[in-house]
Amino acid sequence: MHWKSRIFTASDHDSLVVVEIGCNIGDIVRETMNVGLAVPLGGRPSIGSGLWLQGGIGHLGRLHGLTCDSIVGAVMVSVESGKVFCVGHVPNQYLVTFKAYTAPTYSVRNWIIPLVDRLEAQLTLSSFDKLVASTLPPNLSADAYLYRDNDKLHLGVTMFECSTSLLSVEALAPINTLLGPPDSFKIVDGVGLFDTEMYMSVLHGSRSGGKPSSFKRCLFLKHIGPTNIAEILLKAVETWPSPLCYLHLLQGGGAISDVPAHTTAFGCQDWDFACVVTVYDIARDLLPWSRGAYGADLGLEPRDAVLAVEAFGGNGRRLAALKHSLDPYNVLAYTCPLPKVVKQKLIILVTGDSFAGKDYCAEVWVAVFTAQNLTARAISISEATKREYALERGADLNRLLRDRAYKEQHRPELTRFFHDQLRQRPRLPEERDEAPLTIFSHLVPDHKILDVRVESSKIVVRRGYQDIDGNSSDSKSPSNSTALEYCPSLIFQNDTTGMEAATKFVQDYLFPYVHEDLQSLAHMLLGKAGISADKISIIIVAEFRAQRGRELLRQHGFGKVNIESLLVFGGA
């Protein structure tokens, strides 16, 4: 059967490419090029629709975004009911519709740079990242390759320039300064572009005959120049099982990053390089430093599960819920493994100045949660550092954790030890980070995070927080702290001794986030509208017997909201 791509012109400036099921990338490129149009596609010409729906990274991405973000309409068949749905702009039935752009001409330049040793390789990667890739305009993209040829390390660079007019040379100055004049240069159209990829035409003398086949996984990186990331990349090249293995770093950014993650299923948008690897160990090592994984590559391989968790950014829970709703019997089981729909976990960041009672409050709140049969634990950022410090330096861990005077004696060395850790692991949180909710929330997009600041207008000496002689120090009194430059989620004023105030605070302000009654009520009242308490000023509540509706809302977090009664009469 012959499948078609059809061109629809919506206006003088907007054109649509309508694709029938069965078309592959090569079909679309040829048909659109014949009428002077292009769709931002990626991969090889034989790849089909699975790529369009799960991403689509190509050389037009920096200029026009990912393939999936150019889809403006589609026809879907419900696996639950068999009904056909038209979603978005669909001129005819059974079609997928792309937004189209003026077809460009591509100029392709290649550089091959032999690297003497690791140090030169690291410096070259850093310079390429900072001086070349970060300075390019959106119509230029630079892909890099790390590979071995004749047992020597090489860096390959391919520069793609998309242009609908005369080709420019000004933007090439940084790369010409770093790498010198290109080793090859050609001008091609959209079809010829497929054969210009370095892994198809240059690497290892093109031993593959233009038809490479290999296992691949892809991780998204913000930078490739930092020492910790460059070391992983270079280690990969040195330890690969085959001399034909290579690292492919496709440049992103530009229009890809312009799409807000919450507006698309493709939740990983904030990255500058897509790193294609052929060994799972390398993917595992890069994962902690990555901005996500490419879902289009993932499947039934059990080791893909850890990558799938990072494949959807902050959209994982929403997509999992949508998949469960639209496909309750899991008919579409053999696709990228979506995470299971689970209850959202709550992380409470307890912040505040020294001596405010952060650790004490955290312990009380954990005890209150636990008493209500909720699983909770307190984790101290500094405790992990103290454990490692005690192990390495022979200090008394118990006294470091519980004896303030002993800890103060070790503070200078502890500080230096932590800064050494921070240089090696830059994503470690610091105890003095400002606005931690803003800084760290992207690391756990599937969790609800609260920043609860503990303040005290006077020092309350608690057990475990006094000096050996029993006297407290006023030198770091919270009353001397400067005004906050950010707004925490909640503030607890810790000015009284005993557990009563801390216990009441967790019951009044923290329970609403985990209380099942409130969660059910919130789902009924606000869930479908996607509205939360902090986005509304008035709730109109229909009174139930014993007036439970208004009281329940007031008890569980909506106390600051102006709640009005609505009398409902029979037959109204």
Structural class by helix and strand composition: alpha+beta
As a whole number of angstroms, the C-alpha radius of gyration is: 29 Å
> What overall form do the CA principal axes indicate?
globular
Strand content: 15-25%
Main CATH class of the largest domain? Alpha Beta
CATH T-level topology of the largest domain: Vanillyl-alcohol Oxidase, Chain A, domain 3
Given as residue ranges, the uncertain stretches (5+ residues, pLDDT < 50) are: 459-481, 542-548, 559-572
Number of strands: 18
Summarize model confidence as the mean pLDDT: 75
Overall description:
This protein is α+β, with helices and mostly antiparallel strands and 572 residues long. It folds into 4 domains: 5-102, Uridine Diphospho-n-acetylenolpyruvylglucosamine Reductase, domain 3 (2-Layer Sandwich); 105-326, 3-Layer(aba) Sandwich (Vanillyl-alcohol Oxidase, Chain A, domain 3), CATH 3.40.462; 346-508, Rossmann fold (3-Layer(aba) Sandwich); 515-566, no CATH class. The chain has helices spanning 25-34, 49-54, 61-64, 118-132, 173-179, 198-201, 227-239, 255-258, 280-286, 304-308, 316-326, 358-371, 381-393, 397-402, 404-424, 436-440, 500-510, 516-527, 548-555; strands at 5-9, 15-20, 37-38, 71-77, 84-88, 95-102, 105-114, 140-149, 152-163, 184-188, 217-221, 246-251, 273-277, 346-352, 448-455, 490-493, 538-542, 562-566. The termini are far apart. Residues 459-481, 542-548 and 559-572 have low confidence and may be disordered.
